């Protein structure tokens, strides 16, 4: 009984989130009409706050030696990603409360599904068990499909949801096929068992084709979740069609959780322990896998950046930009070593700030004007300087220029890649960053370099709360570019405890 | 005897799958799919997984297939589209077969053997105990219920008839009205 209680205490964040998701669903029934958004949103925020509190209490505590309940891993790595997801959810909830774009009749359902999507991200980030990983992925995906189609009556939103479902179903199927092959070869669904068993297989030297096929199929599933080429086709349509708060969630929390699962998958199954010394074949295979990921990274960032150049819709442009950023992050994954993975964590945190901010500005602007076109931003800089200045901070960070965190994040990714010997990849990424300057700059130009008279709207009505949120994100974006020590240390710490 | 039944069920499953891809009419495909489901259920029986076999029949044949048939019944037929999909289905199955052959023939696979697997818990009672054992599958089992709840609520929300006021129109109208006043202010 005590043992059970102790195990339960390790999963309090998950229990808390589930509880408040249900509370949000029920509160909706008792709140007077017209006040649902605020009230239900308030309860959701309370839940997120409580979850963050429980997560914070787990930080720094020695993680349990055995997986909790036989399948959940509670370590700093998962805690980092859970905090990441809770923070993103909090911003998405706040955005929704302040947004007019999502005005469905079911607020309770909206917040319930949103929090459950977060729960999916929690499980995805904290398990070596393939079954639980798949369930977490599926919970996150199913919730995302519904959220993408939440603006009922809006054709684009419906189209987004439909495309997302079809792509998602195929990707899940492909990934499951990969999982079954791994199970067939090793007889286990636990990655910590699969890793050593695969090592035995390599030692027998039967060739790597079966393992390659299995890994390739699994990677396809992960690539879909993080929208890496060639599985990125759904991204622009879904990001554009979904209500903007949902897009923000997909771009930040969903992608982050996908990367968390990918890192765990590779770390546990395919990176030989250099100190123990794996068989030669496994070393070679690990490097080959790294090269494959590197090629995917180059492909992803190039496709994303080139496609972003021609976009006129701000959300669609940001969608392609998020594909490109998945490419940059994959660069760190391709190194297949601790330093690279640590730089991935760092960049994801930075990515989280700048993308939340950029999508926040889009929403802020679309709220009052109903427009999402880049050209319509003309003169915004003169009319609403505060918002425009925060947007510039986010854009500079997205390009990766100092003094923002985007620069530091890219710096770590580049050094990790070069140290591993992927000089060509670093060069490709450099060229890509230069290309990205063009389309990010177009937004800044529209805001600032057009005379005030061309402005389409007199002023963008600033709700002070929304402006404050954007300011917080902008300060974070710049702050981590200067005082990045503590964050870097935390990322390293999280990474080193990964098995 | 076992081999005979294996061939029977495996043949049924494969023939059903091929027919599903090749049939001209979607309804025929759906019925062919039943062959696959039953064949797979038979294979489960041969593997000693009786509970799984029963669930396969109950859920796939009794639930999902009926759902598919309802879906077909409620959508207008479109034959031109079907022709296009046939090619896709064919090439997709070719890719799947190629992958499988690559795994089988490309090298000698050391599939996990019976001896180093856990003994099959073939009846309903052990499976139920395993699902609720804390170190077993308790967490995945509970998580599945959350997944199902989300899917249930989401599908009800999407299928629910909209209320009299069209949500999007009203917000667009509000935005347009506001835009008008804004421009007036700018003009003044």
How much of the sequence lies in strands of chain B comes to: under 5%
Count the strands of chain B?
Answer: 0
Going by helix content, strand content and strand pairing, the class of chain B is mainly alpha
Give the fraction of residues assigned to helices of chain A: over 70%
Return Rg of chain A in Å.
22 Å
What is the terminal separation of chain A in angstroms? 29 Å
N-to-C order of helices and strands of chain B: HHHHHHH
Question: What is the strand tally of chain A?
Answer: 0
Which of globular, elongated, flat, extended, rod-shaped describes the shape of chain A? Answer: globular
Regarding quaternary structure, what we see is: heterodimer
Low-confidence stretches of chain B: 164-171, 181-188
How much of the residues of chain A is beta strand, in percent? under 5%
Percent helix among the residues of chain B?
Answer: over 70%
Number of helices of chain B: 7
The domain tally of chain A reads 2
Give me the strand/helix succession of chain A.
HHHHHHHHHHHHHHHHHHHH
What integer is the average pLDDT of chain B? 77
Mean pLDDT of chain A: 85
Structural summary, described in words:
The complex is a heterodimer of chains A (499) and B (188). Chain A contains 20 helices and no strands. By secondary structure, chain A is mainly α. Chain A has two domains: 206 residues; 206 residues, no CATH class. Chain A is globular, with a radius of gyration of 22 Å. With 188 residues, chain B is an all-alpha fold. In chain B, α1 runs antiparallel to α2 and α2 runs antiparallel to α3. The longest helix of chain B has 27 residues. At the A-B interface, α5, α6, α7 and α9 of A face α4, α6 and α7 of B.
